[in-house]
Each structure stands twice: as C-alpha cells, then as structure tokens.
Write a sequence for this structure.
C-alpha cells in the first residue's frame, strides 16, 4: 500500500507550457507539503497545507499554485514553465513530527 | 538568518563507524530530524531529537546539544547500502522545517 503517491513520475515539457503534478496520501495526515529539490540536492519547502488551509507559502513565483480538493490530496499547478523550474518535486505529509515523502516527480523543461 | 551546516561529502569503509555532524542557527527550536536519501529516491525518516542526549535506534544513533546548536548522526557497522545522502533538518519556532544541504556518504569496501 502506497502511503504518499505522486503522478507523473517523469514530466518532460517545453518552456511556456502549463502542467500539474498530483499528490495523494492515504495516511490520514492533516498536513501536506510540496518541496523542490534542485540539482544541488537542496530541499526547499514550497507550500504546506493543513486541513485545506495554506499555512506556509515560501517566496516562490506565483506561477506555482497549490490546490487541495480535500485533506488527502495536494496538487501543484505550474503556469508558463521556465528552464529553471527543472528539478525533482516531492510531495510529503505529516501528522506530528515525521514527514512521509512521495517518490518524487522529475520535471524537465526544454 | 536561519542556517544549517553539514559536510558536503564523507567517505568511510564498510564495517567501520562514521559520524556526520550538523550545526544549526535557527529562530527557535522545536526538534531536529535526520533523514536518509538514496540517489534517485525520496528522503526517509531516520531519527528525531528534541531533548539533549543520545537516541539510539539499531545501528544508527543521533545526538543533540541544544546549547551548542549541534547534532550528529552516528552510523555503526557500515554497510554498502548505507551509501546515501543524510539530511539534517531543524523545526523552528514557527514549526517550519529548515533543511540542510545534506551530506553524501560514500562507503568503500
């Protein structure tokens, strides 16, 4: 049973396109996150949602928008993709301390 | 500003012991975490320290000194599968997780 799942695993697209990445968790956790990990392997928090309310919104471009239809899902929509958006995007969830990560989505913008 | 420092890369021998250090400067402290990340995979939780002292979990132990802003992860009886990046993260006063850049550990036979 997959705890945190993401789709797609790989995404190759051209500059200027709009794309979405989906995330689902079946752990019953209240908080979900989106992280970006660039080529230097540095994990950067982008957003987190607690009970469908945004509680952290780091200084990311407004081309990125999180959408949470319910507590188990947190999708990431990206408009007007740029070369610098190429990275691995991880979804995660937590209830108290430990965060559970999804397998990641490798986004390549050409 | 908030800062987490850990060595970029370390090399150790199979069967040996290695200590990965992490120092932090954050606005408040609500716990320190260690995660393991194999190449091409997601980070997985290893340990959590909120009080000073040593937490032991099998071959892995994690130590915390809040007064010194310092933690280490100790790996014993190293195995080849321990080759991975080890990420230190601190939860600040806003309960936001601040991540270090990770230490790439290379295990040699």
């Amino acid at each position: 049973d997959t705890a945190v799942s993401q789709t797609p695993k790989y995404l190759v697209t051209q500059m200027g396109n709009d794309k979405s990445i989906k995330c689902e968790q079946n752990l019953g956790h209240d908080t979900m996150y989106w992280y970006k990990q660039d080529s230097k392997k540095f994990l950067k928090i982008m957003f987190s949602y607690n009970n469908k309310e945004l509680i952290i919104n780091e200084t990311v471009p407004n081309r990125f928008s999180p959408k949470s239809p319910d507590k188990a899902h947190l999708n990431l929509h990206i408009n007007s993709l740029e070369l610098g958006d190429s990275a691995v995007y991880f979804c995660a969830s937590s209830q108290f301390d430990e965060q559970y990560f999804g397998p990641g989505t490798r986004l390549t913008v050409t | 500003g908030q800062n987490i420092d850990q060595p970029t890369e370390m090399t150790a021998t199979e069967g040996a012991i290695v200590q990965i250090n992490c120092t932090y400067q954050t606005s408040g402290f609500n716990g320190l975490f260690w995660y393991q990340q194999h190449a091409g995979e997601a980070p997985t939780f290893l340990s959590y320290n909120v009080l000073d002292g040593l937490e032991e979990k099998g071959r892995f132990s994690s130590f915390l000194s809040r007064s010194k802003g310092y933690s280490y992860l100790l790996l014993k009886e190293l195995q080849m599968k321990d080759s991975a990046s080890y990420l230190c993260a601190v939860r600040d006063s806003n309960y936001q997780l601040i991540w270090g850049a990770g230490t790439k550990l290379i295990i040699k036979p």
